[in-house]
Structure formats: C-alpha cells, structure tokens
Amino acid sequence: MPDSENENNIRQSTRPRTGSSLFRLKTKLILIIIGVLGLITIIGVYFYLYKPKLYKWKQNGITVAGGNGRGQKLHRLNRPEGIFIDKNKNIFVADYENHRIVKWKHNAKEGKIIAGGNKKGRRIDQLYGPTDVIVDEQ
C-alpha cells in the first residue's frame, strides 16, 4: 500500500511468479493481480481516506487478460510476469513460459503477439522467458 510519505509509488509482492501492484492515479487506486494460472485481474478501486490512512477496496475485479487457464493460444497466458498499460488501456504482457509479449486491447477476448512467440531462443524473432515489458509510446 502507499506509505505516508509517497502516495505515487508502485508496490510489488515478493512472492515469486505472482504478485500485485498498487497504482495511484489521481483519486483512483488500481490493484493489479498477476496469478499463477495465467490471468491478470485489475480491480478499479475508489477509496475512502481516514486518519490514519485507511483504504476500502471493492471486493470485485475483472479479468482483463488470460483467465482461461494456462496455454499457448491467444486467449491464454502461461506465467504472466510483467505488464505495461498504455494511455489507450492496451495491456502488454510479458508471457514468460510462452516466450512472447502479448498485447491485449481494451475489452479484447484474446491478445496479439507483438514480440517472440517462436519458441524460446536467441534469434531476433524469439524471446527467452521475458519478465518485463515497457512500451515507448512516442
């Protein structure tokens, strides 16, 4: 959770291969949960601020990428690791076991491979267990 000194931080769990990140965007918090079963759930959170800081979370979330079990098809992920969300709400996922980066458009039922996806390797068209993704939007 955000600490009292810096409300604009991002926090990631220390558990391997799963995690959650907390983002503060204006007056809305977003909790991103990455699970071991190949899904990414985003919980949009409106919060109530008390003294000391206390946040009330909605108890429901929506799965925005994966969620159909592990696998190689474009509606599945296998050990998603890092994510990037752009200004158009596209979600870019480092799909570790599938050795690819997948782009999920907002409300899409499946993703599109934008890098890798040709088995693990070191060729220019391959990735080897990607763990993070950053997109330069310029």
From TrEMBL:
Transmembrane segments: 29-49
Top-level taxonomic group: Eukaryota
Keywords assigned: Membrane, Repeat, Transmembrane, Transmembrane helix
UniProt KW Transmembrane keyword: yes
InterPro entries cross-referenced by the UniProt entry: 6-blade_b-propeller_TolB-like, NHL_repeat
Protein name: NHL repeat containing protein
Species: Adineta steineri
Gene3D superfamilies reported in the protein's UniProt record: TolB, C-terminal domain
Keyword Cell cycle appears in the UniProt entry: no
